[in-house]
Amino acid sequence: MKSVFITGGTTGIGAELAKHYAERGWKVGVCGRDKLKYTESFPTQKDSIQFYQVDVANRDQVKAAIRDFSSPIGLDLLIANAGIGYKFKTKIPDFEFSYKMVHTNLLGTMYAFEAALDVMIPRSKGQLVAVASIAGYNGLPGVSAYSATKSAVQKYCESLHLDLRQFNINVTTINPGFVDTPLTQANHHPMPFLMDAPKAAKLIGRAIEKKKMTYHFPFFFAGMVRLMGILPRTWYRFLFSMKLLNYSKEK
Ligand SMILES: NC(=O)c1ccc[n+]([C@@H]2O[C@H](COP(=O)([O-])OP(=O)(O)OC[C@H]3O[C@@H](n4cnc5c(N)ncnc54)[C@H](OP(=O)(O)O)[C@@H]3O)[C@@H](O)[C@H]2O)c1
Prior knowledge:
Elements (H helix, E strand, L loop, with lengths): L2 E5 L4 H12 L3 E6 L2 H7 L7 E5 L5 H12 L6 E4 L14 H29 L2 E6 L12 H21 L4 E8 L2 E2 L1 H4 L9 E2 H13 L4 E4 L1 H12 L2 H7 L12
Parallel strand pairs: 1-2, 1-4, 2-3, 4-5, 5-6, 6-9, 7-8
Helix pairs in contact: 1-7, 3-4, 4-5
The chain binds NADP nicotinamide-adenine-dinucleotide phosphate (NAP).
NADP nicotinamide-adenine-dinucleotide phosphate binds next to α1, β2 and α6.
């Protein structure tokens, strides 16, 4: 039996991924801070999806949960998915929340990878996946720390992809566009090409199976965003001087 541990697997993309793997007969573990979200998302699947109450910003908690879940059959796949984003996009960032974002989105990914590698390296097999974002391709207005953490996760995974191949461990970065989840339901701006979470999980599952180094979607929107990433920065600045794109608020 194959096994997967998904951080932030109690709502949205993570929960859909948990269902995706449970339906295929995998042993599935998820973690989150709030057990109620787990109970609500999996009313009939509690036997097939194991829950750990963990804050990914706490290295010891992450380590203990992944060690417990992986015993004794090991760990085939780790998906570092837990993440938070700004509810309100403001020109002056909410610094307190920004620091929390670094602890959750970036350090949370590193702690999960570290704990998974403790299990995978001795067995010389496994796959690490991080859910970053297309927001990591550019510094977007109003989401400074979100873009920064996702960009850091992209680069972190790119390096590890090269380093861990010799241990037979594959690393995949997933960069979604807008997906309809509790995270984006709090947004107050247009979300082009919004996709539903089950469809996103299906696409992500397929990319993981193919052991892609990096996967971004939806195809057209992600392509446009990546193109913006290679524009001369004066053009980029001009684009975002347009009100339509620059939706961050003064306060
Ligand atoms: N939705 C999108 O459009 C979109 C686009 C690009 C990238 N992403 C990324 O996709 C990932 C999943 O997002 P989502 O949209 O599915 O959001 P979501 O529905 O809000 O789910 C977030 C999950 O992460 C958990 N979580 C948050 N902080 C945590 C912490 N400190 N420790 C443990 N678990 C924590 C949440 O549970 P608790 O709150 O109970 O802890 C929940 O299970 C995130 O990394 C997000 O940045 C999303």
